[in-house]
Amino acid sequence: MALSSYLTKDYTTAMTDTATLYIVPTPIGNLDDMSARAIRVLSEVNWIAAEDTRHSARLLQHFSIGTKTLSLHEHNEDKRTAMLCERLKGGESVALISDAGTPLISDPGFVLVRKCRELGISVSALPGPCAAITALSASGLPTDKFIFEGFLPVKTQAREGALSALLDRPFTTVFYEAPRRILDTVTDIQRVLGERNIVVAKELTKTFETYASGSAQDVIDYLTAEPAHQKGEFVVMIAPAQINEQAIPSEAMSLLNTLCEHMPLKKAAAVVASHYDLKKNALYQAGLDAKA
Ligand code: SAM
């Protein structure tokens, strides 16, 4: 069956008139998460660019996909990008896959996609597995606004620096961590952020999928309870900082002090409140505290 039979008009056009680069997510553990569309696209493109062709051979074989593969990884991405763009411009279609999950998310592919966009080559991404989004959606932490940090720096000092940025961050932080560093990282989180609520998602979609949550100490207790608890793949999520709604930025406080020299505190508090979008009463109280 042709790809065009179930896809949108734009997509149909892309398949028939314009060669396209397809970004194709693959399972992060459970092969049943491979979508029918992913299988179809991978079967019908001219080339599959894979992060590791030997690793992906098993997946492709499992789904009886016989498309030719070539490698695209962090060490050859520039060279491959030039070659693949030539093929795409020549009318061939290409699918990009990584070892697991969504390409470009802590995986290669950015150089290729950016170049395709620059050259006006059609790029189409299929939705699918991604460890960060899978973990976040089941974490119980706020999802309305979050930041994905990829992997934290490896060196302790740089990692602590990156964690310090979370001290006042009012939304959830999500990052990936390797098993050999997971305990050190959670210990660093405890040192830098105190007993902030965290969730560590392990082995998502696999037999031993686990969510360990609570304070950093609770998660350390889980990780050290058994050697197996530090093995596998991990997503770490950190709850937002509890922002004190009464906290007044220093610039606002400074303006309040200046205005108080020229007008009554009540009026100064109203002006500063409207300028900084703060609560008038909180500013009034802060003004009284400052005078006292
Ligand atoms: N592109 C992938 C994605 O979309 O999730 C991520 C690739 S990144 C190189 C690999 C990291 O993702 C792992 O070290 C781990 O932190 C996380 N990861 C991948 N699969 C996972 C799983 N099944 N459970 C938990 N974390 C996973």
Automatic annotation (TrEMBL):
Molecular functions (GO terms): rRNA (cytosine-2'-O-)-methyltransferase activity
Name of protein: Ribosomal RNA small subunit methyltransferase I
Gene3D superfamilies: Cobalt-precorrin-4 Transmethylase, Domain 1, Methyltransferase, Cobalt-precorrin-4 Transmethylase, Domain 2
rRNA processing in keyword set: yes
The organism's taxonomic lineage, starting at the top: Bacteria, Pseudomonadati, Pseudomonadota, Gammaproteobacteria, Alteromonadales
UniProt cross-references to InterPro entries, sorted A to Z: 4pyrrol_Mease, 4pyrrol_Methylase_sf, 4pyrrole_Mease_sub1, 4pyrrole_Mease_sub2, rRNA_ssu_MeTfrase_I, RsmI_HTH, SAM_MeTrfase_RsmI_CS
Keywords noted in UniProt: Cytoplasm, Methyltransferase, rRNA processing, S-adenosyl-L-methionine, Transferase
Keyword Cell membrane attributed: no
PROSITE patterns associated with the record: RSMI
Cellular component per GO, a single term: cytoplasm
Gene that this polypeptide is encoded by: rsmI
Top-level taxon: Bacteria
